Amino acid sequence: MQDYDEVTAFLGEWGLFQRLIFFLLSASIIPNGFNGMSVVFLAGTPEHHCRVPDTANLSSVWRNHSLPLQLQDGREVPHRCRRYRLATIVNFSALGLEPGRDVDLEQLEQEGCLDGWEFNRDIYLSTIVTEWNLVCEDDWKAPLTVSLFFGGVLVGSFISGQLSDRFGRKNVLFVTMGMQTGFSFLQIFSKNFEMFAMLFFLVGMGQISNYVAAFVLGTEILGKSVRIIFSTLGVCIFYAFGYMLLPLFAHFIRDWRMLLLALTVPGVLCFPLWWFIPESPRWLISQGRFKEAEVIIRRAAKINGIIAPSTIFDSSELQDLSSKKQQSHSILDLLRTQNIRMVTIMSIILWMTISVGYFGLSLDTPNLHGNVYLNCFLSAVVEVPAYVLAWLLLQHLPRRYSMATALFLGGSVLLFVQLVPPDLYYLATILVMVGKFGVTAAFSMVYVYTAELYPTVVRNMGVGVSSTASRLGSILSPYFIYLGAYDRFLPYILMGSLTILTAILTLFLPESFGTPLPDTIDQMLRVKGIKYRQTPSHTRMLKDGEESPTVLKNTGF
Hints:
Blueprint: H1 4-7, H2 16-27, H3 30-37, H4 39-42, E1 48-50, H5 60-64, E2 69-72, E3 75-78, E4 83-84, H6 86-95, E5 110-111, E6 117-119, H7 128-132, H8 141-167, H9 169-187, H10 193-221, H11 224-252, H12 256-268, H13 281-286, H14 290-303, H15 315-325, H16 338-363, H17 372-381, H18 383-396, H19 399-416, H20 425-453, H21 459-482, H22 490-506
Antiparallel strand pairs: 1-6, 2-3, 4-5
Helix pairs in contact: 2-10, 2-11, 3-11, 3-12, 8-9, 8-10, 8-21, 9-10, 9-12, 10-11, 10-21, 11-17, 11-18, 11-20, 16-20, 16-21, 16-22, 18-20, 19-20, 19-22, 20-21
């Protein structure tokens, strides 16, 4: 019996139908680049200090000395969260006493910012931090916003995989796309931090759900050679394109509400794609809906100008496939056999570590020396050559070695950051960008690799669970960056070490390079270094211990 790739080989690899699917699904990812990192500017924290009311009866000398000083990066700056007791210095000002000459400032009593804060507006006109005073005692709320967004991404990763495997890739893609766009729009009308954070959680749910659904939909519709290009140069570069536009929008729109409105508009433009993007024929076949799958395949042939064969699925194939495919599958199937269990555990570790590195380095851009908008733009631009490299590696080299190479590059460079002299901070920025390059290349390849390891019946669920694990890493990533308050090199040491250890783990995963996508659990490739019991139902084994996925046999799943 033929597999899906053989049945649909007559369509060709790069006809008009495949090009439409490629570019339309890729275009649907652009808003994800906006929403993914928009918090860098929405929750930006400008320089600030306690407000001294204009109504306070202070001389110009005392007004200039109303704030205690603190050390920051080796220089004295006004304290962000304290001021001298206003009643006391008003009294001294009225008596004509001079600060420093008649009054020892170090002995003066201090108080909090009882009249609010003054925010520097050179970089941001307004952010959620300046609007709701998320500083000093409330400074924990800004990083919590990031964690809540990624918490939504975590929940979305978990449920979207199961919903997509049950209700279809296309339905979940557009429902979650609407969820992301709709709740982003509602954020503009947030009355307080709690409302903004709750809506941001829901935006996160939609953001990753439509990304995974679009990725799996394209992977299942496109042929083997185009599948790799779609997963790297397609989806990922269009995501980076949205990411690159973010600092450009933010540079010209410095108010957070107007910026959010501008970033929401492109999502609305994606909804007409419903009439052009079909459901995955692979998924329809896995549900036993062969007639609907055949309609889509024949329509694709017509678009490509190809005459489809009179019979695409013969009766024996339909009967055999129906007996297998109409069974329902749950998340427990990802742990059912020893092999798929090991693949799932290793994928979880791999995705989590890569996510810590990718999002940690992306969120760290405001802390680098130089212009915050330029640093963010460079962080986005460096992803493009990373995706090109990932595509070249996936096209010509084994998956395991490609992943390990990218991870070793990213991890080792981050470890070298601590050796850079303080006066060569531009070199440190370059090393961070090279580290982002390596981690981004690995992040691009891990989607392809994971999708190739899991079979059709649980592929979206497998990618979804792996993506769920990566979101645990993204939730933790802001706190890796905040460790820099204790030692500015500690985040790079931790991220670099974890990345290198994960590179070693990658070498034990099975190699999927040059093999067809498995459709059932028993067709999956074998994890290295583990002995498996032989059963009569097993098919011919390859020299390295991997089962050939080209032979379809049902062993009870």
